[in-house]
Amino acid sequence: MFALVDAVAFYASAEKVFDPSIRSRPVVVLTNNDGCICAVSPEARKLDIPKFEPYFKLKNYLNQHNVVVRSSNYELYADLSSRMMNTIARFCDNQHIYSIDESFLQFTGFKSIVNDWHQYGQDIRLTVWRETKLPVGVGFGITPTLAKAANHAAKKLSGFNGVAVIDDKLSAKAILQRMSVTDVWGIGSRLGKKLNLMHINTAWDLAQQCPKYMRKQFSVVVERTIEELNGKTCLAWDEIKQDKQEIFSTRSFGERVTNINDLKAALVTHSSIVSRKLRQQASLTKRLVIFAHSSIHEDSFYKRSFLYDFPVATSDSRVIANAVSEVLPQIFSANVRFYKAGIGAIDLISEKYIQEDLFSPCRDNKPLMTSMDKINKRFGTGTVRLASEQQSNRWAMKRDFLSARYTTRWSDIPIISC
DNA sequence: TCTGGGGTCCTAGGACCC
DNA sequence: TCTGGGGTCCTAGGACCC
């Protein structure tokens, strides 16, 4: 049995934790640079506020309806997320944190202990609420995709009260028939349109299709989804937990960048983020993509992207930063208002299988990088960093509606007065 | 008279998720 | 005044090789 536990409109709910005055009000949270709306509280959803629309287009509407608007407060969300995940972890010995607000649980050997999954789900919900003041939904299913579907039902369909269970064909049918095909994990709006043309409208319709045929028509992803909806596990646990095949760090700038040093500072910062993520999953990269571009909404769209191959695969921040510096002059162009830049590590291998180069000297930098990671983990990201990552506020993101870092800054700790 | 394979790598773009 | 997120994986199609 699998379970998926995730928060209701996580960012919006996180904003409410330390600000009870907005708990019953509609709240939306914006992406980086206050660009788009990325989280919509249930009260705001009732006002038909769509996700991922540009903020400036809805500004008036939000004002009219007295909606609370917040910038993304990642420091707060990351901390609340780890508290929430710790609480959830007590309910299962096998947890996989899938995203900032979602975790999969796999239950093996629980049958003798848990005889009522509905009750167990309610226990999880109540405990998480009591300890973190975050509302979560819990879906149980015999495959990860069915757990996802149950989770959708728990939160969006009437009559479930936050917990849904799919443990046989009957319960699967009851829920899948009430779900649109695009509510299925892995089926988005584009595929949805094509499927509708084939008269596949509900999740249950999709489950009735021949997996092999659908693979030919669409892709292996659709095939696996159909198998999963029928109770056949394709996304094995170790596959869900699998290492990433590529790792990116990209960001659009708070203000357009026109200076080569600002662009460099940004790209080197991205290289540090990517290197750290590589080390976290014990991977090395053989190849890097480095890119920067102007706004796609501008008439003369400028984009440069370069591949960089390393003779020996690496996860060393300095080696990756050097690659960035080397390519930078080819990417930069005067008179371009850069809007976004980033790097990606592609072609990853495990640290275990490093292939060394016969002709280049091998330096073991691991101890240095390990110490750096440890220091930054203990004293905060950026405590030790590369000199070329100089703090340049010019490209930092815009966050006009930022709430306090209630749990990660001494100065922001909430004060309760009687 | 007319015809013509199979593999690998690269890139851009599509599609999905939150 | 002007404004439009970030991350990952998959696939089609082109270029090239023998």
| CATH class descriptor name of the largest domain | Alpha Beta
Order of strands across the main sheet: 5-6-1-7-8
What's the number of domains? 3
**CATH fold-level name of the largest domain:** Alpha-Beta Plaits
Cα radius of gyration in angstroms: 24 Å
Main sheet? 5 strands, mixed
What does this structure look like?
The chain is an alpha+beta fold. It folds into three domains: 1-166, Reverse transcriptase/Diguanylate cyclase domain (Alpha-Beta Plaits); 179-241, 5' to 3' exonuclease, C-terminal subdomain (DNA polymerase, domain 1, Orthogonal Bundle); 247-379, 2-Layer Sandwich (Dna Ligase, domain 1), CATH 3.30.1490.100. The protein has 15 helices and twelve strands. The strands form three sheets. Strands 5-6-1-7-8 form a five-stranded mixed β-sheet. A hairpin with a 6-residue loop joins strand 2 (27-30) and strand 3. It is globular.
Summary keywords:
single chain; 418 residues; alpha+beta; Alpha-Beta Plaits; DNA polymerase, domain 1; Dna Ligase, domain 1; 3 domains; 5-stranded mixed beta sheet; 4-stranded antiparallel beta sheet; DNA-binding
Give me a quick take on this structure.
The protein is an alpha+beta fold and 418 residues long. It has 15 helices and twelve strands.
